[in-house]
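Same chain as my last thread, 222 residues:
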Amino acid sequence: MYNCTQGGFLLMAAVLFNSCASTGTGSGATITATGVVHDINTAAPITGVPLQLEVFYNNGGTAFPATTTSGSSGTFSFSTNNYPNGTVSNYSLNVMANNNYFISYYTWFNSPNASNIIFNIQSKAFLKLHVINSTPFNAYDSIVINPTVYDATYGTIKGSLKFKFIGAKIDTTFMVTNSSEDVLGNTVDNITYQVTKNNTISNSSFNVSLAPFVTNSYTLNY
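reply #2:
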């Protein structure tokens, strides 16, 4: 069994992925792989996750002979001998780009046959914040908002994505995301914020339960 989970997102920055390995070698044989895809938080099977088989050669070359998608029970299977001749060093099964899930998952196997591969993957959510300065003092009022996000580039959870607004008439709506950072589905996001009014600084926080795949909306009055 190959159990591939990000283990609480504790990944080395240079690696970005979890890997699982078997023993043995393979070259020129039919490649087979079977397994299942689960949600890491709910353990529910996930339908429609695209996966790609990758073959690595001793000369540094690679080939991508097959793709598939997880079925209604989260299961998937490959069987192919349609790849270039050469001395194969190992194989990899990769979770491909998907708007609903982070893609930092793959598994290595060194023999051409692998079974019972388990991918436990993290769902995305989408968070829209409506920020209103409901008790303005003057034009120097400010708020700094720090959501907790998952950084797909480094495989870590962090709170360094900041949004700052200055003014007495702040009434704005925005999505909490950027090119590499999103919030996590099936989780509770703790969002801290700092308000400055009349030269007084106050710190507060709130929690938002994030349903996966959909836009979750929250209004913050300060």
